[in-house]
Write a structure and sequence with these properties.
346 residues, alpha/beta, Quinone Oxidoreductase, Chain A, domain 1, Rossmann fold, 2 domains, 10 helices, 16 strands, 25% helix, binds nicotinamide-adenine-dinucleotide, binds zinc ion, ER, metal-binding, ADH-like_C, alcohol dehydrogenase (NAD+) activity
Length: 346
């Protein structure tokens, strides 16, 4: 079968021919119907050898959708032919955090050699993929796999980040979204669906800001050195109750801290290869502002998101690519010229 692999440190992803996998005990084989491309892949492929821990060659793709085609011995609870999306941050399944569905925070996964598909285990950028357990599959019924696969990360990560702050998003509140790409354009929609907050979106080009407006941002602001002042002007001098930074570079973290109101949440989702940090402490941050770095989301949250998708809540913007063009999609991602999520259809 064909797959997209990262094979050499610093190299570009390659389309290669590899053996079709067979599901082992308890596992499920999917015929992949769609696989999303995430900016985190770019982070991973820019790590120097001494920080790279994902194994080589690595079949990429941690956003996967597929059709169940084969069950390994003893695998139960899902039927051949079912259309599903894959919950990616696999955990041990038995610890206290996994018992709550928070496998993204399983403290035992690494020591047990359990890694997400595309981030250690073979990923979804292939014609077929093996999923470790039926519990990692969420049926999607007649939803379009291309429009649904981004929910597994580009949707799930902001959904989790927003849900934990919903109590602060009362009427009259504001939420700032920095970076309106794959994750950010879904964050805007999740905010609009779940809260009465005024949503202000920041990005670096008019095209990106146009997408933000199209998916429901109340206001848009260019992300430059004057951004924080411009956001505060829009808010009558006040700050926002939730700031989501989907870039995570020093300039955006500084903007995030500068627009945070008292008792707000500053949630840094973006990951960069250059060190960046929030300045915290007296005179550096708003009183009782909490700074946090969430990772992905829980199994139950993905089920909730798929329910929202069935209600027609999301307008997921995608650009689709054939597998042969996946390397070009990664180039577009790195260049910042994609609109919404890049999705590969094998
Ligand atoms: P993306 O490339 O689709 O979107 C990033 C957006 O940020 C683009 O629209 C880009 O124009 C914009 N941007 C770049 N520089 C900016 C600046 N200075 N100010 C404002 N906007 C700017 O990326 P994505 O796939 O949506 O991922 C976003 C980030 O989230 C990445 O860093 C990724 O690694 C990270 N991520 C984290 C988690 C997690 O669990 N914490 C999960 C998924 C992705
Ligand atoms: Zn990701
Ligand atoms: Zn666990």
């Amino acid at each position: 079968m064909r797959a997209v692999q990262y094979r050499t440190i610093g190299g570009a992803p390659e389309v290669v021919e590899i053996e079709r996998p067979t599901p082992g005990p308890g596992q499920v084989l999917l015929e992949v119907t769609a696989a999303g491309i995430c900016h985190s892949d770019d982070f991973v492929m820019n790590l120097p050898a001494e920080q790279y821990t994902y194994g080589l060659p690595l079949t990429l793709g941690h956003e996967g959708a597929g059709r169940v085609v084969e069950l390994g011995p003893g695998a139960e609870g899902v039927e051949v032919g079912t259309n599903v999306v894959v919950y990616g941050p696999w955990g041990c399944g038995v610890c206290h955090l996994c018992a709550q569905g928070k496998e993204n925070y399983c403290p035992r996964a690494a020591e047990l050699g359990i890694y997400p598909p595309g981030l250690g285990a073979p990923g979804a950028l292939a014609e077929f993929m093996v999923v470790d357990s039926p519990r990692h599959l969420v049926p999607i019924g007649d939803l379009d796999p291309v429009k649904t696969v981004p929910l597994t990360d580009a949707g799930l990560t902001p959904y989790h980040a927003i849900k934990r702050s919903l109590g602060k998003l009362r009427a009259g509140s504001a939420a700032v979204v920095i970076g309106t790409g794959g994750l950010g354009h879904l964050a805007i929609q999740i905010l609009r669906a779940l809260s009465p907050a005024r949503v202000i979106a920041l990005d670096v080009t008019d095209d990106k800001l146009a997408l933000a407006t199209a998916v429901g941002a109340h206001d848009v602001v260019l992300s430059d050195a004057g951004a924080a002042a411009n956001v505060r002007r829009l808010l009558g001098g006040r700050g926002a109750q939730l700031v989501l930074d989907f870039v995570g570079a020093q300039p955006t973290i500084d903007t995030a801290m500068a627009v945070a109101d008292v008792e707000s949440d500053v949630t840094i989702v973006g990951i960069t290869n250059t060190p960046a940090a929030a300045q915290v402490g007296f005179f550096r941050q708003a009183y009782e502002a909490s700074v946090t770095v969430p990772y992905w989301g829980s199994r139950s949250e993905l089920i909730e998101l798929v329910d929202l998708a069935h209600q027609g809540v999301f307008d997921v913007h995608t650009e689709t690519f054939a597998m042969a063009d996946a390397p070009a999609a990664y180039e577009r991602l790195a260049a910042g010229t994609l609109t919404g999520r890049a999705v590969v259809v094998p």
